[in-house]
Write a structure and sequence with these properties.
The complex is a heterodimer. Helix content of chain A is 75%, strand content 1%. Chain A has a two-stranded antiparallel sheet. By secondary structure, chain A is mostly helical. Chain A contains 14 helices and 2 strands; from the N terminus they run ααααββαααααααααα. The longest helix of chain A has 38 residues, at 198-235. By secondary structure, chain B is mostly helical. Chain B has one domain (24-60, 73-295): MetI-like (MetI-like fold), CATH 1.10.3720. Chain B contains 11 helices and no strands. Chain B has helices at residues 13-25, 28-53, 91-127, 129-144, 147-158, 162-173, 175-189, 192-199, 204-240, 252-258, 268-295. Chain B is elongated. The model of chain B is unreliable at 1-10 (pLDDT under 50). Classes of the chains: A mainly alpha, B mainly alpha.
């Protein structure tokens, strides 16, 4: 019962935060200098006042602000995110449908790489605390999360394209070499694998490696740091002393008792990791000319494509909020105090 | 919690300064961090003074006059330690000139966050009630918001520039400090000496400034130090996106972005400003982590 109440409260909170984000973008959209309609239709629309007036009426821009707010929220909930000037005025929702799966492909791969590198290094650093191993790992992870994603990306780009020409440094696949399978889920890698299009699968998979690696390299430090410190904390607790006094070997105390306990604290930072990866994707996708949502956010920003910017920020925020919620659920499940009430 | 912290109510500026210096130099990690941070601060200070006095102290002007012709895309050399860019500007001079912007915003944003956050959080923890409840909900919301993205929207609509970006970051940055201050003030609020002070008729403001804030200053210092690096990182990201200073005024992130086009022929152009950002942020991370270790804060 306690668990259910906890989950409902967290879910309610997630919805509330989404509303806050929507409200922020709504308020900001009213601060656009000049007549908003020209921001949406393009400056050329100023030559056709009648058209601009018609669109102002169509988009309820002459209504009182609270009515506009209601239209805005309802439209957003129906998936109507407006049209994107920087993409030839096609609906923003269809741009997102195209680009989001591409971004999720690299973000999910980066997440996996992050967890693996982060956890292994964190465990090693804690196991060999205050030894050269620990110091070396610390230098590595400090440099990792202190570096801007575009710097690490540039470094990787330079190294691969000048010295190590194995991996492609741009695009989601080579359109001249392979052609994608018809879309089922929207995830090109997954779709081609399911439909047995292995040449495309291989080509597209190779293209996600460098962007994902870049994202993982600037993010894993968060995991290493938390893994190390929570392992060291657990190792100081009474229950570890009990395990030791039972005569267990140090290795089995560490990996069998301390590690599972410390893993719980990693759940709570998973949403932080997701935030890093998604915001990083704006830079990394641009750098690697990878046509995902981050790339769209970047080009929308350069082209003053307001609907595009707001929609991408909203989608990113929604993913982060959902990750928060999932982390809460996992945490509640992993923590007996909440699960058993 | 066993805190091998310096005495919580040191008297006199000299003693306090000595305690702070000891805190930052007693650990090898924080010492290295301190050296890096002081180095950058010195450069930032000198550059700011020079720009206020309108004196050029960099080897070359950051933005030469249009009719000045100089060799473009030279590699690093003694004359141009970081080379020259596509229009012949000395990259070393540009990196130096950009230092105050990137560093000041770190201090300004974190400083305001510490100020606002510790006041609100400290009072909320001490008083409880409605203020506390509202503050905690607001904090929760801000924790869930992606700061860089919000700043991006604000920049896209209200325009970039260091002023707008500082405001955007200041609006979103204080809640973690409020949560921190609240937590710490809750911890001490029911200790005997606070009760005693309250019973003796002290006003909450007095309790906050005399007892609670000095107690949480160590933790605040650690978070703030680590955070200055984060602000620099986020701001450099915003400048990379073109939301920082208007060109030709230099910004580290904007330089990396602008020099991307010469990545394959002249990689140092983009790599050097990027590396400078990393070193600056690493300095704050080392300093913060070191102080944290010395104080025994988790």
């Amino acid at each position: 019962m306690n668990l259910l109440r906890f989950l409902l409260r967290r879910a309610g909170f997630a919805v509330f935060v989404l509303f806050v984000v929507l409200t922020i973008t709504f308020v900001l959209s009213h601060l656009i200098p000049g007549n908003v309609i020209y921001a949406w239709l393009g400056r050329e629309a100023a030559q056709y006042p009648a058209v601009a007036a018609a669109y102002s009426a169509k988009y309820h821009l002459n209504d009182p602000i609270y009515v506009q707010y209601i239209y805005y929220i309802v439209g957003m909930l129906q998936g109507n995110l407006g049209v994107s000037p920087s993409r030839g005025f096609i609906p923003v929702s269809s741009v997102i449908a195209q680009t989001l799966p591409l971004t999720l492909q690299i973000v999910l791969l980066a997440f996996v790489i992050c967890v693996v590198i982060g956890l292994v290094l964190g465990v090693l650093a804690a196991r060999y605390q205050n030894t050269p191993v620990d110091s070396a790992i610390r230098v590595f992870y400090l440099a990792s999360y202190s570096s801007p994603p575009y710097f690490v990306g540039v470094l990787i780009l330079v190294v691969t394209s000048l010295y190590l020409r194995i991996l492609p440094t741009g695009g989601a696949y080579d359109p001249l070499v392979v052609s994608p399978s018809p879309s089922i889920t929207g995830f090109p890698i997954f779709d081609s694998l399911v439909q047995g299009n292995f040449t495309f699968f291989e080509n597209a998979s190779v293209h996600v490696i460098l962007p994902a690696l870049t994202l993982a390299l600037v993010t894993f430090g968060v995991i290493t740091r938390v893994a190390r410190s929570s392992l060291l904390d657990v190792m100081k607790t009474n229950f570890i002393r009990t395990a030791r006094s039972k005569g267990l070997k140090e290795g089995s105390v560490f990996y069998g008792h301390a590690l599972p306990n410390a893993a719980i604290s990693l759940i709570t930072i998973s949403s932080l990791v997701m935030t890093f990866l998604l915001t990083g994707s704006v830079f990394v996708e641009y750098l690697f000319s990878y046509p995902g949502l981050g790339h769209y956010a970047f080009t929308a920003l350069q082209g003053s494509d307001y609907p595009g910017i707001m929609a991408t920020v909203f989608v990113f925020a929604a993913i982060i909020i959902i990750t928060n919620l999932v982390a809460d659920v996992l945490y509640a499940y992993a923590d007996p105090e909440i699960r058993l009430g | 919690m066993d805190n091998p912290a310096p005495p919580t109510t040191p008297r006199g500026l000299g003693r306090r300064a000595r305690a702070a210096i000891r805190l930052m130099t007693s650990n090898k990690q924080s010492l290295v961090g301190l050296v890096i941070v002081l180095g950058f601060l010195a450069i930032a200070f000198v550059m700011e003074v020079a720009s206020l006095l309108n004196v050029q102290i960099t080897p070359y002007p950051a933005n030469p006059l249009p009719n000045q012709v100089s060799a473009t895309l030279l590699g690093p050399s003694w004359a141009h330690p970081f080379g020259t860019d596509n229009i012949g500007r000395d990259v070393f001079s540009r990196v130096l000139v950009a230092t105050p912007y990137d560093f000041m915003i770190g201090f300004v944003v974190v400083g305001s966050a510490v100020l606002v956050g510790s006041m609100l959080g400290g009072f909320a923890g001490l008083r409880g009630g409605l203020l506390d409840e509202i503050l905690m909900r607001v904090t929760d919301v801000f924790f869930a918001l992606p700061v860089l993205l919000i700043a991006m929207v604000i920049g896209a609509i209200l325009g970039g520039g260091i002023g707008n970006m500082s405001v955007a970051l200041m609006i979103t940055w204080w809640p973690p400090y409020a949560r921190l201050a609240r937590g710490e003030s809750l911890k001490v609020a029911h200790q005997n000496y606070i009760e005693a002070s309250r019973l003796s008729g002290q006003r909450p403001r007095h309790i906050l400034f005399r007892h609670i804030l000095p107690n949480i200053s160590g933790t605040m210092l650690v978070y703030a130090t680590l955070d200055i690096g984060t602000v620099i990182l986020v701001y450099s990201g915003l400048t990379y996106l073109g939301l920082g200073n208007k060109p030709p005024a230099p910004d580290w992130g904007q330089m990396v972005a602008a020099y991307n086009s010469w990545l394959l022929s002249d990689p140092w152009l983009a790599l050097i400003p990027g590396l400078i950002i990393s070193i600056g942020v690493i300095g704050f991370s080392l300093l913060g982590d070191g102080i944290k270790e010395t104080l025994g804060i988790r």
